[in-house]
Specification:
heterodimer, A: alpha/beta, 24 helices, globular, B: alpha/beta, 8 strands
Chain lengths: 489, 247
C-alpha cells in the first residue's frame, strides 16, 4: 500500500516550484479546500495567541532555548543517549536516511514483524522508510487519521500538521467507500472517524512493532514526547511490544522544565488549542507496562550542515507547528504538493534546500517560492526569521550557479541582465543614460498609455497586468529644472 | 536638520510625480529637502533575488551618498526596509567591519515617509485636501519590517474632504514581491486576484499605499480589468491642498 513519492528527498530530479504550483493553482477544488481550511485555522490561532499576555516573551524564551541547545548540541545528544540507556532504552545514530532505514528494518526483522504500525512522523517520510520497509517485505500502516487517508489514496502529505488538508470530507467518504469496502457511509466526521477506528484497532492489536516520530526529547531525563490530537499515537507507542522512534537530532531540549515553554507555544500555534488532547511521554521502558523494548534512532541527514551555517541554522529551531503554512499567502493558494518535499510551506522552502544541499535545480527553486511578505516570521513561535533565511539561501543558489555553473551559469539571461543592471546602478552617468534609453526603447511596446505585452521572461508580468510606460521626465530631470544641475537644494 | 530625499530608482524613473509630491509636502511642512544627484539604487532587487555580491557596491554607494545627512526620507517602505534590515547582512557578506559600522550609524536615520511625518515630525494633519473615496493597502515591508503601524491611516484620516474606507483583509500580501511577480507569475497573479476583489469591494475610487511597486502591481491588474479604480501613492494625496485648485 506504500507509494512512490518522488520528492526532494528521493534522490532524483524534482520539478521546479513554479511548474508544480501552476498545476495546483488551476485546481479549483484544491483552492477551495485549502482556502477554507487555512483561513479557519488562522483565525482560531489569532484568538488562542491573543489571550496570552506573555506571548512575545514565550516566543523569545522558545527561541533562546532552541538556539542555546543547538550551540551545545554535541553535549546534549550524548547526555540524551546516557539517560535513555540508563532507563533501559537503546540509542542508534544514523548519519543519513538510508542508515536510519536499515537500523529500523533490522529491528523489525529481528522480531519477525511483517507489519508495523506508525504514528505520523515526517522524519520517516524524509527517509522514505515505508518504501524501504516494503522492499524488505514489511508493510507499514499509517495510523494517524490524515496519514491513513493519504496512504489509502496513494498520495503524499501536503501539510506538516494536517497531511490531508487538500481533501474535503466528501472526497474522504468516497475514498473510504472504495478502499475500505464500506457500503453505506455518510460524510459526517464522526462516521468517517468510526470507519477508520474499526480498521485501525485491529492493526494496533496485531502489530509487534510500533514506529513513531518525536516532538521533543529531554536530555536530562531521556523522556521522549509525542504531541497529537487523536490518541492513535498513544496506541502506537503503548500497544506493540517493541517501539522504535526516529527523531531528528535538533528535536532535543535540555531539561524537563523546558516543556513549560514549548507546551504553551506548540498547541496554540499549530491547532489553536490551549492544550492538545494527547501528550505522551515515555522514559526508556517500564516493566510490565507498555513496550518492553525501546529504540531511539537519532537522524542527522544533513542537519549538521545546516547547523554550520550561521544564518541558516535558526531553521533547526522549528518545532513543526505549521503556523507558517497556515498564514502563508503562497501556501494557501498552491498547497503543499507544489513544494515537492515532505516539508512544504515557508519552513519547507528553507529547510528542504538546506537538508538536501544547494545545487539541485528543483529544491533550489524553493527559496523563490515567497513574496517575502513576512507573515511567517510574525507567527513563528520560535522566531525563525524565515524571510531572512530565504534571502540568504537565494544568495547561495545564485553564487552556486555563478561559481559552479560554468559558462551556462554565466550566460543565463537573468544573470546577464542582473550584471548589466548592477553596472548601470554603480555610476550616475550610466544610470541616467539608461533612464533615457529605456524611455526611447519602450516606444514599440507602449500603446494608449499602457504596456500590454512584454517580451521574453518579462511576459509573466503582462500576462495579467498592464504596465505603466516610463513618463517623459524623470524625477531628477524635474529636480534639475527646478534647482539647477548642482548638488543639493 | 539636513534632510535628504532618497527618491528610489523606481520612483525616479517610473513615478516622478511621487518624488515631486514628497518634496512639495516636506517643504510645505518647513523642511528644506536636498536631493543628492549621485543616488541611484539601494540594491534591493539584486539582494533579494540572490545577486548579493552585485548588491554590495550599491550598498557602499548608498552609504557614501547619504551618511552625512541627519535624516533620509524615502516614499517607499520596501527600499527603507532594505537599508534598515538587510544592509547589515550585506555588510557581513562583504566581510567589511568598517562598512558594517557605517551602516549601523546610518540605518536608524533612514525613514519611510509616513514614519518620518508621524514619528519624527509628530504631525498627522499635514493640511491636505482630497475629495475622493480612498482605501489604503498596508504594504508588507512597511507593515512587518518597518512596523509603521497606523501612521499612514492617521495621516489619511486627517485629510480634508477624504472619504476613507478600510480595506478588508488589508494585511494580506498583494503578491508583488519584486522578481517574485515574474519568476512565480502564476502564484503572484492568484494573490493579486484576491487583493483586487477586496479593493473593489470597498467601492473606493482610489487605492493608496506607501510603495509604488505594490501599487504598480495592484494598479496594473485593475487597469487590465478596466475596473475604473486607480492607484495613487500616499505622498500625492498628502501633497494635495485646496490652494492648489484655486486660480
Amino acid at each position: 500500500m506504500t507509494i512512490e513519492a518522488p520528492d526532494a528527498f528521493s534522490g532524483g530530479k524534482t520539478p521546479h516550484f513554479e511548474e508544480t504550483a501552476r498545476e495546483s493553482l488551476a485546481d479549483s477544488q484544491l483552492r477551495r479546500n485549502l482556502g477554507k481550511a487555512t483561513q479557519t485555522i488562522r483565525r482560531k490561532r489569532a484568538v488562542a495567541v491573543e489571550e496570552m499576555p506573555d506571548w512575545e516573551r514565550l516566543r523569545e524564551a522558545g527561541r533562546a532555548l532552541k538556539s542555546r541547545t543547538l550551540r551545545h548540541l554535541d553535549e546534549y545528544l550524548l547526555r540524551l543517549e546516557e539517560s535513555i540507556t540508563r532507563a533501559g532504552g537503546q540509542v542508534h545514530w544514523a548519519r543519513d536516511g538510508e542508515e536510519a532505514n536499515r537500523i529500523i528494518a533490522g529491528i523489525a526483522r529481528s522480531h519477525g514483524a511483517g507489519e508495523v504500525v506508525k504514528v505520523k512522523s515526517i522524519a520517516t517520510d524524509e527517509t522514505k522508510l515505508n518504501e524501504h520497509l516494503e522492499g524488505e517485505g514489511i508493510e507499514a500502516f499509517e495510523t494517524d487519521l490524515a496519514e491513513l487517508i493519504i496512504q489509502l489514496a496513494g498520495e503524499t502529505s501536503s501539510h506538516i500538521l494536517v497531511p490531508a488538508i487538500h481533501k474535503n470530507r466528501s472526497e474522504i467518504r468516497e475514498l473510504f467507500m472504495q478502499k475500505l469496502g464500506v457500503e453505506d457511509l455518510s460524510d459526517d466526521p464522526p462516521d468517517l472517524a468510526e470507519v477508520a477506528r474499526l480498521y485501525l484497532r485491529e492493526k494496533f492489536l496485531k502489530a509487534k512493532v510500533g514506529i513513531s516520530g518525536a516532538n521533543f526529547a529531554v536530555a536530562e531525563t531521556g523522556t521522549v514526547c509525542v504531541v497529537e490530537s487523536e490518541g492513535n499515537g498513544r496506541m502506537c507507542t503503548t500497544l506493540p511490544p517493541v517501539l522504535v522512534t526516529l527523531m531528528g537530532i535538533e528535536k532535543i531540549i535540555p531539561t524537563w522544565q523546558d516543556y513549560e515553554v514549548f507546551m504553551q507555544l506548540l498547541p496554540r500555534s499549530s491547532t489553536a488549542e490551549r492544550m492538545n488532547p494527547y501528550t505522551t511521554f515515555w522514559t526508556g521502558v517500564s516493566e510490565g507496562d507498555g513496550p518492553q523494548e525501546f529504540h531511539l534512532v537519532l537522524l542527522d541527514n544533513g542537519r549538521t550542515e545546516v547547523l554550520a551555517d550561521e544564518i541558516g541554522r535558526q531553521t533547526l529551531n522549528c518545532i513543526r507547528c505549521s503556523a507558517c503554512l497556515n498564514v502563508c499567502p503562497v501556501y494557501e493558494r498552491t498547497g503543499g504538493h507544489a513544494y515537492n518535499s515532505v516539508y512544504p510551506g515557508p519552513i519547507g522552502a528553507i529547510l528542504t534546500p538546506q537538508l538536501v544541499g544547494i545545487g539541485k535545480s528543483g529544491s533550489d527553486s524553493l527559496p523563490y517560492a515567497s513574496s517575502l511578505c513576512g507573515a511567517c516570521y510574525e507567527v513563528c513561535p520560535v522566531k525563525i526569521n524565515i524571510p531572512e533565511v530565504l534571502i540568504h539561501l537565494r544568495g547561495k543558489v545564485v553564487r552556486h550557479k555563478q561559481d559552479k555553473g560554468g559558462l551556462k551559469g554565466k550566460l543565463d539571461p537573468e544573470n546577464v541582465a542582473m550584471q548589466a543592471m548592477a553596472k548601470t546602478f554603480s555610476e550616475r552617468r550610466l544610470y541616467e543614460g539608461a533612464q533615457k534609453a529605456a524611455r526611447i526603447g519602450q516606444w514599440p511596446l507602449a500603446r494608449s498609455g499602457a504596456i500590454h505585452r512584454l517580451p521574453g521572461r518579462l511576459a509573466g508580468w503582462t500576462d495579467a497586468r498592464d504596465l505603466k510606460p516610463i513618463p517623459e521626465q524623470t524625477f531628477r530631470e524635474w529636480w534639475r529644472s527646478q534647482n539647477g544641475s548642482g548638488e543639493g537644494a | 536638520m539636513r534632510v535628504a530625499l532618497f527618491v528610489t530608482c523606481f520612483n525616479d524613473t517610473l513615478f516622478p510625480e511621487t518624488g515631486r509630491a514628497t518634496v512639495e509636502l516636506l517643504e510645505r511642512l518647513g523642511i528644506e529637502v536636498e536631493f543628492p544627484l549621485e543616488q541611484t539604487c539601494c540594491g534591493q532587487m539584486h539582494f533579494n533575488t540572490g545577486y548579493q555580491r552585485e548588491a554590495i557596491p550599491l550598498v557602499r554607494r548608498f552609504v557614501e551618498v547619504f551618511e552625512d545627512y541627519d535624516a533620509v526620507v524615502a516614499p517607499s517602505g520596501s527600499c527603507v526596509g532594505m537599508v534598515r534590515e538587510l544592509y547589515p547582512l550585506a555588510a557581513d557578506l562583504a566581510n567589511d567591519k568598517r562598512l558594517a559600522a557605517r551602516v549601523e550609524e546610518l540605518a536608524p536615520k533612514v525613514f519611510e515617509l509616513s514614519e518620518f511625518l508621524v514619528g519624527k515630525l509628530e504631525v498627522t494633519d499635514v493640511g491636505a485636501y482630497y475629495p475622493h473615496r480612498v482605501t489604503y493597502h498596508p504594504t508588507c515591508h512597511s507593515l512587518r519590517m518597518l512596523k509603521v503601524g497606523d501612521a499612514p491611516v492617521k495621516l489619511l484620516k486627517a485629510v480634508r474632504g477624504i472619504d476613507f474606507v478600510e480595506l478588508p483583509e488589508a494585511r494580506e500580501c498583494c503578491g508583488f514581491g519584486g522578481t517574485f511577480a515574474v519568476k512565480n507569475a502564476d502564484t503572484s497573479i492568484a494573490m493579486l486576484g484576491d487583493k483586487l476583489r477586496h479593493v473593489l469591494d470597498t467601492e473606493a475610487e482610489i487605492c493608496t499605499a506607501g510603495d509604488n511597486s505594490c501599487l504598480m502591481h495592484i494598479g496594473g491588474g485593475l487597469k487590465r480589468q478596466r475596473a475604473g479604480l486607480r492607484t495613487v501613492h500616499l505622498a500625492e494625496i498628502l501633497a494635495n491642498t485646496e490652494e492648489k485648485i484655486k486660480p
